[in-house]
Amino acid sequence: MTIIVDAYGGDHAPLEILKGACRARDELGVTITLTGSESGIRTCAQENGLSLNGMTILDAPDVISMEDDPMEIRRSKSNSSMAVGLRALAAGEGDAFVSAGSTGALVVGSTFIVKRIKGVKRAAIASIMPSDTVPFLMLDCGANAECRPEALVQFAVMGDLYMKHVMGVPKPRVALANIGTESTKGGELQREAYRMLSDCGLFDFTGNIEARMIPYGGADVVVADGFTGNMLLKMYEGVAAAMMKNIKEIFTKSTKTKLGFLMVKGGLIDFKKKMDYTEFGGAPLLGISRPVIKAHGSSKEKGFFSAVRQAVRTVEKDVCGEIARNMPRSSEEAKED
Amino acid sequence: MTIIVDAYGGDHAPLEILKGACRARDELGVTITLTGSESGIRTCAQENGLSLNGMTILDAPDVISMEDDPMEIRRSKSNSSMAVGLRALAAGEGDAFVSAGSTGALVVGSTFIVKRIKGVKRAAIASIMPSDTVPFLMLDCGANAECRPEALVQFAVMGDLYMKHVMGVPKPRVALANIGTESTKGGELQREAYRMLSDCGLFDFTGNIEARMIPYGGADVVVADGFTGNMLLKMYEGVAAAMMKNIKEIFTKSTKTKLGFLMVKGGLIDFKKKMDYTEFGGAPLLGISRPVIKAHGSSKEKGFFSAVRQAVRTVEKDVCGEIARNMPRSSEEAKED
Fold first, then answer.
1. Buried b (16+ CB within 10 A) or exposed e, B21-49
2. Can you tell me the distance from the alpha carbon of A101 to that of A14, in angstroms, rounded to the nearest whole number?
């Protein structure tokens, strides 16, 4: 299996990306194709004692940054490490693409270069997140700021398949993020989506989920428009980070509190591990015809390695094929074939 | 000053409400008018040794529950403790109304019985929340699941005045909740609201705020439509509660961890106090012509007392008058006068 890696995407590129890619090659036994400045990659590897043995490099002089308009991936940044990687994926030169670069550019690039699965109206960013009980998948986390209810039903279908095949949840509980549990709650989008999700019959729709229950693992798949999903994801991360910061401060105040830390160290480490999203890797872009994984922008070695591991599972479980085979299609679409 | 209290609203009514009201009478020197079943209130007070000295009771046989359709406050539940309280407020029999009952019914009842301030299109639930640094106000937290951009500008005006006058923040930083900091981010609502908020000139608009920065106190006033605000509020509460639960479990595991707790007890208590929303009281319904405060549904004595204290400040600072005097009005509205 060949995983194409955007060596120049993310806050800690290229070094941490290369470290993660090397670890994936060594531990997962996959072939890695790197995209990015070839001379930059070689220099970085040499300076840091990383072996590029068995890796191919596709030279890409440009980098698409967080500040660039995502559409630039089709224009002035068509020779960026991300664009080159996506073209290689589309051409079948690898089985999956992993990038920690700009989410917006990755969505645009994947949609226009790799293309969506037939019948899928919108690709979605699906984030796997920790909860008090089991990890859950939330989608869309930001690919589509505005959605129609039909798109939310497609997100539910894709999220259900992902949790079943990649995460091994036999019967995922699929819920709609909403401001109340009753079917009449929310705006027009939520009310109509509730009706369509109830009628769909392709997954176990458990109704609306209030945001308060999400961190307790109240659903395996949380369906939302990209605006809401992104707000929820970032609020989750923000509150968790702010609280962790405070807890750390409490323990590092004095010799006495440091002693206190030693007494609860085991429990705290387990808790930190439980809350650590880098354990779960990145966010798959569901609905794209070949596997594309968005690693967190702040990924270091471990986070990027996890994202590659997730790409491997996505390939092994043929998630794209499952979606293509199971996505319901309108009669017009079926006729077009 | 007379505060009208819904004795039958909330999960712990009437006992905890009565306790909070008694404490407010004793500590804040305000007159309390209670609404609800007179016999029920008297029995509860007697059984729990609470003195109703100096309190008036407006008998209201019904209770509007969380399960009732909010519109019922205008129909079958027009003799509920909430409806009776709102009519008393509208008739000038008190200076403010405080209820821990159904948010939806309180919004409907306040709008139809007490009425909005002239020029205000939509009333908003404004929640004061803790952050890593300073408390902030988020509005709307659920009165309006769908909003037009004009409403978001009015929320900004009202939130700014509230933070200035009640919370004593000289120049509140007003920000729009969005999925990115750039003006082009979000849906049509956010893009248009961004433009209008930038042009308004009545407050210090600092641009978009991502959800990740909200728990760090990145803005004093966070403006959002009611759907988004409600999701953010509940996600905040949910993550904080789930983490607190885990931390508690870590410390109560064994004798050793309990000893560890003793060593960081002071810091943990301070942290818990910092994160405790009951310190801040309830959520004012901004845009209503007289002060209405929504106490948290789970309010106990302390939380309800804080909500009454907040009502007192809202009256003292004449927040409703400030909003009425400062709300920009269209030329059509001005002509109508």
1. bbbbbeebebebbbbbbeebbeebbeeee
2. 11
Contacts of A11 (CB under 8 A, 6+ apart): A100, A297, A298, A299
Asked whether the beta carbons of residue B131 and residue A242 sit closer than 8 angstroms, the reply is: yes
pTM, to two decimals: 0.91
The alpha-carbon gap from B46 to the nearest alpha carbon of chain A, in Å, equals 37
Mean per-residue pLDDT of chain B: 93
pLDDT the model gives residue A287: 97
Q: What percentage of chain B reaches a pLDDT higher than 70?
A: 97
Question: What average pLDDT does the segment B47-59 reach?
Answer: 96
Please state, as a whole number, how many other Cβ atoms lie within 10 Å of the Cβ of residue B162: 26
**DSSP-based three-state secondary structure for A100:** coil
Which residues of B fall within a CB distance of 8 Å from A232? 211, 231-232, 235
Nearest CA in chain B to A251: B264
CA torsion angle A236 A239 A241 A242 (round to 10): 170
pLDDT, tens digit (0-9, with 9 covering 90-100), for A153-191: 999 999 999 999 999 999 999 999 999 999 999 999 999
Taking CA atoms, what residue in B is nearest to A238? Answer: B212
Enumerate the residues of chain A whose CB falls inside 8 A of the CB of residue B251: 264, 267
Residue recorded with tokens 């810091």: B267
- A3: three-class secondary structure by DSSP: strand
How is residue A32 written in tokens?
Answer: 């890695």
pLDDT, one tens digit per residue, over A236-270 is 999 999 988 888 888 888 888 888 888 888 888 88
How far is A72 from A87, CA to CA, in rounded Å?
Answer: 15
The vertex-A130 CA angle with A194 and A82, nearest 5°, equals 85
CB contact under 8 A, B260 and A260: yes
Instruction: State the average pLDDT over residues B108-124.
Output: 96
Residues of A in contact with B238 (CB under 8 A): 211-216
pLDDT level of residue B34 (50, 70, 90 thresholds): very high
**Is the Cβ of A130 closer than 8 Å to some Cβ of chain B?**
no
Interchain CB distance below 8 Å, A212 and B238: yes
